[in-house]
Specification:
single chain, mainly alpha, two-stranded antiparallel ribbon, 7 helices, 4 strands
Amino acid sequence: MSPDDAVKRGIDVVGAGIALVLLSPVLAIVALLVRLRMGSPVLFRQQRPGRNGQPFEMLKFRTMTDRRDASGALLPDDARLTGLGRFLRRSSLDELPELVNVVAGDMSLVGPRPLLMQYLPLYSPEQARRHEVRPGVTGWAQVNGRNALTWDEKFALDVWYVDHRSTRLDVEILAKTVSQVFGGHGVSAPGHATMEPFRGNAA
């Protein structure tokens, strides 16, 4: 581990640990609301690619039901996203359990967002460079448009972060994230619950 990586890891552990303690009442309230409104499980768990594409289990508060159609297939995201779920996403409260992933070393406070495992073979070599660092709870793309960006714009910002990352930049991103969260900007792409699926550069 390089000295810069060691500093970043130390900031992650201390920052996420303090946040978990200070936000524990909020975590408890959100968990209770999810349990009352949507039942169990309270947490959404999904395999996501971490550094170098290695999978880990990412934690989030659940925002969607498991409603299915007559054939047993899950309904589209828009149909399963609840009112509480929309609020949690708009406020980014659904992301708070990822602080546990940060403490565990799977994620960083700042870095490219961990996307879906099935996207891995769809990236161009340049886009795949976003996995050279740990994924983040927030990132450069998140404070520059979030899900209102196109995939190409988002990946370009992710790679820019990989090439220019520093403690000063991380502090800037964290400060901008606070403003972004309160503003609720860029939570979803037009016509989608979050972002339309990435279909690869060939598409």
